[in-house]
Amino acid sequence: PLVSIVVPCFQSSQWLEQLASEVKQAMVAAELSYELILVNDCSPDDTWNTIQNIAATDENVRGIDLVFNTGQYRSTICGLLQTQGEIIVTTDDDLQQPPSELPKLIQMLLDNDNTDCVIASFDNKKHNLLRNLGTSIMDLLFRVIYKKPQGIRSTSMRAMRRPLVTAISEYSTINPNINPLIFQTTNRIRSVSVEHQARVAGKSGYGILRLITLMIDNIVSVSTLPLKCISMIGFLAALASFVLGAFYVLQYFFTENIKSDTGFMTQVL
């Protein structure tokens, strides 16, 4: 297939058939050969059985069943490692990122040979205030820490060329966060505006604690900023110790000289 589409799945059995159907409609309409890889992140519901049923009736669909829950980013990396296409697309399983918009990303990548990645930009996100706030903070972190290109939004809906996927898959980090890895690997990134929909059912798994943990992972797991900060603190501590040591040495000799001079004057008097 030309295109490989990777979707990490968790508690999404109710609408996975709709997702696979919409992906098929979009790709057939765009006349693009594709494979759809659905990665079950050890979901406690009927997600894996649903994936098996979809794969049994659609030759374009493959399923991966993880034996324990790893989180969205690890399960996505797992899917990336199994792809066969030259263009690899990632998207969420909640249908907030409409499959009908996938050809937009793919076509922009095909039309621009000097582009490694196209990331979706949602102008009107259907998320709650907390989720939008967390996204804004992470966007700021990415610009400061990873030099994210101006005007590029950090979302999980993206299309990448095979060499970029190979490169980011080789990073050995316990908490792989795909967008920071992309920003550290290439600056040949474009953005395309796509529609964003409300969830068809259920609720987001990103609460306040999950968002805070994710922000910490973004800083610690991929960035070298913590190491640089610790190195700078160590340098400043060493410099302060040297200055303080020099001060005490000078103070010692200055005090000894004063004692010597005072003793000489006393003897003369």
Describe the fold and architecture.
The chain has a seven-stranded mixed beta sheet, with helices on both faces. The chain is elongated. The longest helix has 44 residues. It contains nine helices and seven strands; from the N terminus they run βαβαβαβαβαβααβαα. The model has no long low-confidence stretch (mean pLDDT 83). It is of the alpha/beta class and 269 residues long. α5 runs parallel beside α8. It starts with a strand and ends with a helix.
Descriptive keywords:
single chain, alpha/beta, 7-stranded mixed sheet
Radius of gyration, in angstroms, nearest whole number:
27 Å
Mean of residue pLDDT?
83
- Helix-and-strand structural type: alpha/beta
Low-confidence stretches: none
- The percent range for strand residues is 5-15%
Total beta strands: 7
Largest β sheet strand count, sense and barrel closure: 7 strands, mixed
The geometry reads as: elongated
Order of helices and strands: EHEHEHEHEHEHHEHH
Distance between the termini: 104 Å
